[in-house]
Each structure stands twice: as C-alpha cells, then as structure tokens.
Inverse folding.
C-alpha cells in the first residue's frame, strides 16, 4: 500500500534527504547500487522518520523558467481531513460558488457541492493524490474568500498553484 505523506514540487530535495537519512538501511540490489527497499528497521519507525523529515520541508522560494520567484508547493497530507473539505464546501456554497466554478477545481472537471459533500462525508481518509490536490485547491479558495478575495480569482490561483495532470 502506498500512503502519501507529502506533495511537493521539490521532489529532488526531499528524495535526497530521505535517501541520505536511510542510507544505512537501504538494501543493495544486484547491480551493487542502493535502492528504495529498506532492511533492519521497523516499518512504522521508518514511516515516522520519513514523516519527520517531510515535516521539516518548507515552501521556500524557487524560480520559474523566466527567473521569476514563486512559492514552492508543499502539501503535508495530514492537513487534509474529509471534514475540513466538507466545511470548505459548505462555506463556499454559502458564498455562492457555482457548479461550473467548483468543476474548475475538481479533477473530473464536473462536480457539484452536493456530490463532493456526499463523497467526503463518507470518506475517512484522503489518500489519492487527486483528492489531496482537490482538497488543497478548496482550502486555498476558502482561505482567499475568507480574506476578502473573489471566488473566481481564488480559483485561478488554486488551479495554477496545484495543477492536476490530466
């Protein structure tokens, strides 16, 4: 089972730190190179250590192709609880988000508040990357709107910041 703990555009940095941390536990493959399989460490302890490393990653600035500074995307997946998504959806619904606007945030590109609330009300854990990105988008839109921004403006920022590959 794959249990994501972090979504980031800093994959090289995170991977290097985790690999270096576990170097003494990484198994050596037939080619003589270390690979991702670990030995000599309890799986729960390895997970806790990897999580600890990921929690030290922050959204420091990076540069895009044009040399412009932009914030890096770092999502700690433990931040996303189904109830927080339901709360964000309820708030945005009261603020007038349309199905068309919500569909811009969702990976299926067609979604209603009622469909999302029904789904996340039954969900205990958000494990898929697309649902984590949807949660991040909703959280950003909710935050921006609470701070006086418009729904459409916040959606544009969320879609750019948290891209979902088709």
């Amino acid at each position: 089972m794959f249990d994501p703990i972090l979504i980031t555009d800093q994959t090289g940095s995170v991977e290097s730190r985790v690999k270096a941390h576990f170097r003494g536990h990484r198994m050596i493959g037939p080619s003589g190179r270390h690979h991702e399989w670990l030995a000599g460490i309890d799986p729960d302890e390895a997970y806790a250590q990897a999580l600890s490393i990921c929690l030290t990653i922050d959204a420091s600035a990076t540069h895009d192709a044009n040399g412009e500074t932009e914030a890096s995307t770092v999502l700690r997946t433990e931040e996303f609880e189904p109830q927080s998504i339901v709360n964000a959806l309820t708030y945005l619904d009261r603020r007038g988000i349309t199905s068309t606007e919500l569909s811009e945030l969702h990976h299926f590109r067609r979604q209603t508040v009622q469909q999302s609330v029904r789904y996340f009300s039954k969900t205990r854990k958000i494990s898929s990357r697309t649902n984590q990105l949807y949660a991040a988008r909703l959280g950003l839109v909710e935050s921006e709107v609470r701070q006086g921004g418009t729904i459409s403006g916040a959606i544009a920022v969320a879609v750019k910041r948290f891209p979902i590959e088709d």
Summary: The CA atoms of residues 55 and 62 lie 18 Å apart. The chain has seven helices and six strands. Helices lie at 11-21, 43-55, 82-94, 99-105, 113-122, 129-146, 151-161.
